[in-house]
């Protein structure tokens, strides 16, 4: 018998009955003789509700206090799950992220895990208890403040704990039966993937697939943690995320395209009329970096204003759009650009697959599918195993559906989504 980390998303613990159902699943795993560590998300839409409440109280709440507020959602669900387990005869104890030894950087809202010292969790397991850890949170190693790891980062908490505790594997429970070739809410005929390599899964997550948090997959690959993505609503086998070499010879390894991902949470900033001389692009992106903003796609073109000027467009998370605009305004006089344009009515659609390394024609097939669906491309970005485009927000669904069909990914049966939004 082994040691297993199980993570349950918000849709899996959305109400009292759901929490009881999760408790019964944990009890079954515990009854099979395994040590069980549970990482839990906030119930349903609790985090969004807390954010809305904060904005009602203050139009610009301080990030430190936001972290103090929204981490209470996971603490509630952790305590309630412990109560439910006790009622069915399973000893359990709940911990906050800091009590579980999750040490982070001091950045509020998007901290990174530095280390985990899970002494209390380890002792709970020695004492025969189920250890329940509030996900998505930790404590800053330097300031000792409560921090959050970014939306969806309970996945990362789970994988980090699995690595620190030497778990056999980490189970991520959601409201779908594993990883699919596209979001089944948009493509009902999306095909289930039984095994997927870290590389493909990282590109899917980075391109907007919501089933796993990107840093979770990065951490799993670095620490060689096998991740089992499953639904908490069924006992179907789900999807295993494993090293790429472990799926050699399988059908997924032979496939050209693994899946189609999309992301609606991006915005585009265009810096108009940048003087075309060395150092100006560096100054612009240094300003964005100093604001602690991650950028995604970048395109530079000759400006319509003058042949001696350029227009630089880039994408960034939509929730950091205002911060990005402010950062660029501060260097306007230094760089000498003409204006800024902002557009958050966009979406990113990506084709992902390790097979495209050795198969020509993927780009042509993708763009022909978009043209056939009357979807206009605004920006293009590629990597060795990914092609991404920016399109109008209104065209995202049509773009995903057309690309999925063009690459022969449609299945014969309709995928099941049991609840929630996939987290």
List the helices and strands and how they pair.
Elements: E1 3-8, H1 16-31, E2 35-40, H2 46-57, H3 63-70, H4 72-87, E3 92-95, E4 102-104, E5 113-116, H5 119-126, E6 130-134, E7 137-140, E8 146-148, H6 154-164, E9 169-174, E10 179-180, E11 192-193, E12 195-197, H7 198-206, H8 214-223, E13 227-231, E14 239-242, H9 251-254, E15 259-263, E16 266-275, H10 280-290, E17 298-302, E18 309-317, H11 321-329, H12 332-335, E19 339-343, E20 346-352, H13 362-372, E21 379-383, E22 386-392, H14 396-406
Parallel strand pairs: 1-2, 1-9, 2-6, 3-6, 4-7, 9-13, 12-14
Antiparallel strand pairs: 4-5, 7-8, 10-11, 13-14, 15-20, 16-18, 16-19, 17-18, 20-22, 21-22
What would your notes on this structure say?
33% of the residues lie in helices and 26% in strands. It has 423 residues and is an alpha/beta fold. The protein has a domain at 3-249: Carbamate kinase, CATH 3.40.1160.10. It has an eight-stranded mixed sheet, sandwiched between helices. Strands 5-4-7-8 form a four-stranded mixed sheet. Strands 15-20-22-21 form a four-stranded antiparallel sheet, with helices on both faces. A hairpin with an 8-residue loop joins strand 4 and strand 5 (113-116). Helix 1 (16-31) packs across helix 4 (72-87), helix 7 (198-206) runs antiparallel to helix 8 and helix 13 (362-372) crosses helix 14. The protein is globular, with a radius of gyration of 23 Å. The protein starts with a strand and ends in a 17-residue tail after the last helix. 47% of the residues are buried. The mean pLDDT is 91.
């Amino acid at each position: 018998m082994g040691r297993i980390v199980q993570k349950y998303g918000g849709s899996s613990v959305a109400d009292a009955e759901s929490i009881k159902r999760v408790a019964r699943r944990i009890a079954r795993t515990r009854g099979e003789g395994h040590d069980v560590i549970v990482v839990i998300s906030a119930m349903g839409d609790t985090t969004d509700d807390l954010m809305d409440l904060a904005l009602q109280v203050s139009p610009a709440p301080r990030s430190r206090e936001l972290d103090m507020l929204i981490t209470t959602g996971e603490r509630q669900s952790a305590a309630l799950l412990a109560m439910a387990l006790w009622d069915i005869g399973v000893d359990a104890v709940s911990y906050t992220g800091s009590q579980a030894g999750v040490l982070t950087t001091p950045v509020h809202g998007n901290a990174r895990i530095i280390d985990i010292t899970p002494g209390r969790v380890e002792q709970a397991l020695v004492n025969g208890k189920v250890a329940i850890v509030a996900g998505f949170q930790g404590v800053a190693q330097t300031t000792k403040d409560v921090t959050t790891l970014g939306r969806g980062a309970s996945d990362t908490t789970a994988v980090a704990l699995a690595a620190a505790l030497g778990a056999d594997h980490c189970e991520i429970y959601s409201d779908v039966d594993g990883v699919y070739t596209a979001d089944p809410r948009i493509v009902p005929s999306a095909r289930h993937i039984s095994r997927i390599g870290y590389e493909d899964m990282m590109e899917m997550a980075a391109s907007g697939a919501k089933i796993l948090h990107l840093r979770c997959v990065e951490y799993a690959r670095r620490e060689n943690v096998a991740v089992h993505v499953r639904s908490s609503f069924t006992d179907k086998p789900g999807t295993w995320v494993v090293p790429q070499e472990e799926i050699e010879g399988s059908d997924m390894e032979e496939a050209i395209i693994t899946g189609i991902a999309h992301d609606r949470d991006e915005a585009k900033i265009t810096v108009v009329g940048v003087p075309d001389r060395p150092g100006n692009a560096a100054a612009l992106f240094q300003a964005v970096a100093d604001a602690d903003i991650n950028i995604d796609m970048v395109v530079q073109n000759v400006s319509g204003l003058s042949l001696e000027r350029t227009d630089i467009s880039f994408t960034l998370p939509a929730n950091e759009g205002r911060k990005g605009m402010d950062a660029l305004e501060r260097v306007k006089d230094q760089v000498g650009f003409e204006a800024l344009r902002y557009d958050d009515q966009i979406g990113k659609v990506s084709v992902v697959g390790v097979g495209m390394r050795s198969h020509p024609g993927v780009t042509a097939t993708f763009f022909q599918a978009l043209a056939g669906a009357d979807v206009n491309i605004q920006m293009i970005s590629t990597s060795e195993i990914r092609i991404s485009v920016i399109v109008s927000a209104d065209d995202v669904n049509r773009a995903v559906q057309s690309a999925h069909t063009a690459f022969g990914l449609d299945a014969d049966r309709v995928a099941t989504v049991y609840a929630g939004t996939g987290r």
